[in-house]
Each structure stands twice: as structure tokens, then as C-alpha cells.
Specification:
- There is one protein chain.
- This protein is an alpha/beta fold and 425 residues long.
- The chain has helices at 20-25, 52-65, 74-94, 107-119, 140-143, 166-171, 195-204, 224-227, 251-256, 280-298, 306-333, 365-374, 387-392, 412-423; strands at 33-34, 37-38, 40-41, 101-104, 127-131, 151-155, 157-158, 163-164, 177-183, 208-212, 231-235, 245-249, 338-341, 355-360, 377-378, 380-382, 401-405.
- The protein is built from 14 helices and 17 strands.
- Strand 7 (157-158) and strand 8 (163-164) form a beta hairpin.
- The longest helix has 28 residues, at 306-333.
- It is globular, with a radius of gyration of 21 Å.
- The structure holds pyridoxal-5'-phosphate.
- Pyridoxal-5'-phosphate is lined by residues 45, 106-108, 135, 137-138, 183, 187, 212, 214-215, 235, 245.
Length: 425
């Protein structure tokens, strides 16, 4: 880790530890068995499991209030209220106001929408700075602007620990840089980037900052005001909600940028960025997912409001995840022929989340994932669309990495199971 001290917007310390039994009881899928083994869901970075209340909210919406928006009758009005409620929930989740929240099918689609709109304002020779650490959803939508003459630059990584090379990044911001697009956390190797600092550097040069918070959202509280980002995108299915994407945009940007949209759609902010009919049932599930996290916080201490409850929830989540990280790193060190890609220095634990990319001599990542999968342990192999990174590290041609991705519902026992699985023939 060569960059300066991490300056993320972390929540206060948890007053009480996470009640893991309560947490796990919320997720019906966690009791699944596979081949006689309890299923261990270590595939959170690809999408987390869902609490029962989210499933119930989706089902209730479809059973009672299913309609299109803005009609003069009960179910349509209920749909309008469902959407307004979810906007308020996501505003609490991200630390902004409700009309800065845009819903869409997923982060990738929302990012293309914004990149197209920003592209309208750019001239040939303008520059956009991306990174080698990012998921391709925060790369290709910006690279698409090369056809307009926009020049794309890439900030490099430190190869030893897969952190961003901040000096390289700062050097590549020029007076022509219009936007810096960077991930909050890497979905492949688990690095948490100092996005607050990167945003400050971008703004100092007059560039906007677009943050991909998809991988960070299940692990840490996001505060868009404190970060001062111009845009931030995340996906509810990565933090215990349904398959959907959410975009935060500063109100002024959502107003002045021109979306590609149909004429009949309103010009109001934020709806002008939401095209066609949204996924109302998943929007209903989104409120329930934010409430699940808030209840986790409320179970730890009295909370005056939902934002404070979320703050406490994430403090407890982080201290539980820290234990899992330390146990996993200790165990991985003992496995012969294993190489970890990412931060392992105990002094830098705050700069990583519990996402581990590994390779073991003599085995492809697919072989490892298959072996674990047969034992009911769900992990991923490949590049997970972080293709700049697998290419930069020279592992793209040989199957990428095995990714073990933990979230707060995972247990120390599950960590031991995956370590045993990797260590045994
Ligand atoms: C870091 C990161 N960014 C972006 C995405 C794309 O998100 P979505 O599937 O919502 O388009 C993913 C999905 O895995 C991701 O992990």
C-alpha cells in the first residue's frame, strides 16, 4: 500500500456485536443443503442472499398493489407511494435527499445512461480517467465515448497488493480531464479505495467524480455528501435486496445534463432519468432491504432515525467482517502453493473488505470452485468483469482467480470450511 492514510467515511464503533443467529434467521436460503452439506454462500460479490421480509414485500406488492404509476385509482396511487418510500429509504442509505435517487435495472444500465448524457457535453480531446482496478461496468460506458474523440486514461495499480497507485492517478488528471470514474471497492480483490481523496483531487482540477459503490455497499456505510461525489451507483442485489440498480446524482447534475429519453416522459428530476416502466416489485423490496439493515442497527442501540440505525448496523457489520478477514488471511497463509492477490498487511485491514482472490499452483480457479461447489461452498472463478485487472495481473488467459466473497451473514465456521476445502487434495 503506497498511498496515504485512508480517509473513508466510516461509521462509529458498534456498541454491541452483531447477533449472528438473528441475522442468519432472516435469510431463508441460508438453511439450504447441497450434497448433504449446509450451503456456504461465499458468492456475495456476485449477489447476496435475501431476507424474508424482502421476499414478502415483493410478493405483497404484486398481490395487492400491482399497477402502473400516476393513475387516478388506488393501486396506482399505492405504486406511487411505494416508489416514493423506496426513494426515501435509499436517500437514508446513501445520505442524500430523495429526489437525488434514480432507480434502474442495474448499475451498468444506469452508468451507460449517465455516460451517454455526459458524452453530449464533451469535446474531442477531453479526457476521462479510469482505473485498472475497476469492474468493466465503470470502464466500458466511458470508453464508449472514445467514438466522440474523448481520450481515456487509466490509473495503474500497485502490483504487490492490488491497491490503486494514487500518485499515478493524480499525475494523470490533467486540465483536460472532465471526469474521474473509480470504484469504491474492488469486486475482485477487495481493495477499498480512498475515494474521498480521489474525489477531492478530481474536483481540484475541475473534473467530476463518478463512484461505483456496488462492491462497497454491503460492507460500509456510504455518505455521498461527505464524499462530495457527483454521482454514485450501486446495486441493491449486492446488499441484500432485489435485482436492481440505484444511482445517486447531485441534484444540479440531474437537472442540467440532458438524458436520452422519450418525449412523453416527464422532465422532472429524478424521474427524467427513469425510462419506461420501472420494476415496482423490486422497488418495494428495496425499502424492505434498507429496513432490514436499519433493524440490525436498532437491535444494537436506540436510534433516533433510520440513518443512525444504518450507521450502527454498518459498524457492527464491519467488526464482524474484520474477524472473518483476519481468520481467512491467517488460514490462507498456511496453504501450500497459494497466492493471494490483494492486501494482506495487518496494518492495512481497513483498506480491504472480505473479498479474497487467490490462485493455487497446479489448479485452475475453475477446478477449485468446482471442488468447493461439490462440498456446498459457493465461490466464483474467472474475472467477474474486472477484466482490466486480470489482464494487468496476467491471469486472464489462465482462468482469472478463485474469489471467496464474504458478507456479514457468513460465519467463522464457513471460513474454516473453505480453508479446509482449499487445503485438502
Ligand atoms: C464493482 C461492481 N461494479 C459494477 C457491477 C455491475 O453491477 P450491475 O450488475 O448492477 O450492472 C458489479 C457487478 O458485479 C460490480 O461488482
Amino acid at each position: 500500500m503506497k498511498s496515504s492514510i485512508l480517509d473513508t467515511t466510516q461509521p462509529a464503533r458498534a456498541t454491541k456485536p452483531l447477533d449472528l443467529a438473528w441475522v442468519r434467521s432472516q435469510f431463508p436460503s441460508l438453511s439450504r443443503q447441497v450434497n448433504g452439506y449446509p450451503a456456504a454462500f461465499l458468492d456475495g460479490p456476485g449477489g447476496t442472499q435475501i431476507p424474508q421480509r424482502v421476499i414478502d414485500a415483493i410478493s405483497k406488492y404484486l398481490s395487492t398493489s400491482n399497477a402502473n404509476t400516476c393513475g387516478a385509482y388506488a393501486t396506482s396511487r399505492e405504486t406511487d407511494q411505494t416508489i416514493a418510500g423506496a426513494r426515501a429509504a435509499m436517500a437514508d442509505f446513501l445520505g442524500c435527499v430523495a429526489d437525488e435517487i434514480v432507480f434502474g435495472p442495474n448499475m451498468t444500465t444506469l452508468t451507460f445512461a449517465i455516460s451517454r448524457a455526459i458524452g453530449r457535453e464533451l469535446k474531442s480531446g477531453d479526457e476521462i480517467l479510469l482505473t485498472h482496478l475497476d469492474h468493466d461496468a465503470n470502464v466500458s460506458p466511458w470508453r464508449a465515448l472514445e467514438e466522440r474523440g474523448v481520450k481515456i486514461q487509466f490509473a495503474d495499480i500497485n502490483l504487490d497488493d492490488c491497491t490503486l497507485n494514487i500518485e499515478d492517478l493524480a499525475r494523470k488528471i490533467t486540465p483536460r480531464t472532465r471526469l474521474v470514474a473509480v470504484g469504491y471497492a474492488s469486486n475482485a480483490v477487495g481493495t477499498i479505495n480512498d475515494v474521498k481523496k480521489i474525489i477531492r483531487v478530481a474536483h481540484a482540477s475541475g473534473a467530476m467524480a463518478y463512484i461505483d459503490a456496488v462492491h462497497y455497499a454491503p460492507h460500509g456505510l456510504i455518505d455521498v455528501r461527505e464524499l462530495d461525489c457527483d454521482f454514485l451507483a450501486c446495486s441493491t442485489y449486492k446488499f441484500f435486496g432485489p435485482h436492481m440498480g440505484v444511482l445517486y446524482g447531485k441534484r444540479e447534475h440531474l437537472a442540467w445534463l440532458q438524458p436520452y429519453k422519450v418525449r412523453a416522459n416527464t422532465n422532472a428530476v429524478p424521474q427524467r432519468w427513469e425510462w419506461g416502466t420501472l420494476n415496482h416489485e423490486c422497488i418495494a423490496g428495496t425499502t424492505a432491504c434498507v429496513e432490514y439493515l436499519a433493524d440490525l442497527g436498532r437491535s444494537l442501540a436506540e436510534c433516533p432515525d433510520r440513518r443512525q440505525a444504518l450507521r450502527l448496523a454498518y459498524a457492527a457489520i464491519q467488526s464482524h467482517e474484520r474477524k472473518l478477514i483476519e481468520r481467512m488471511l491467517r488460514g490462507l497463509r498456511e496453504i501450500a502453493g497459494l497466492r493471494l492477490y490483494g492486501i494482506s498487511d495487518p496494518a492495512w485491514m481497513e483498506s480491504r473488505c472480505p473479498t479474497f482472490a487467490v490462485r493455487i499452483d497446479g489448479h485452475t480457479p475453475l477446478e477449485l470452485a468446482t471442488k468447493l461447489g461439490n462440498r456446498g461452498i459457493f465461490t466464483w472463478d474467472g474475472n467477474y468483469y474486472a477484466i482490466n485487472l486480470t489482464e494487468r495481473l496476467g491471469v486472464e488467459q489462465s482462468g482469472g482467480f478463485l474469489r471467496i466473497g464474504l458478507v456479514h451473514y457468513n460465519t467463522e465456521e464457513e471460513v474454516d470450511r473453505v480453508l479446509d476445502g482449499l487445503g485438502s487434495p
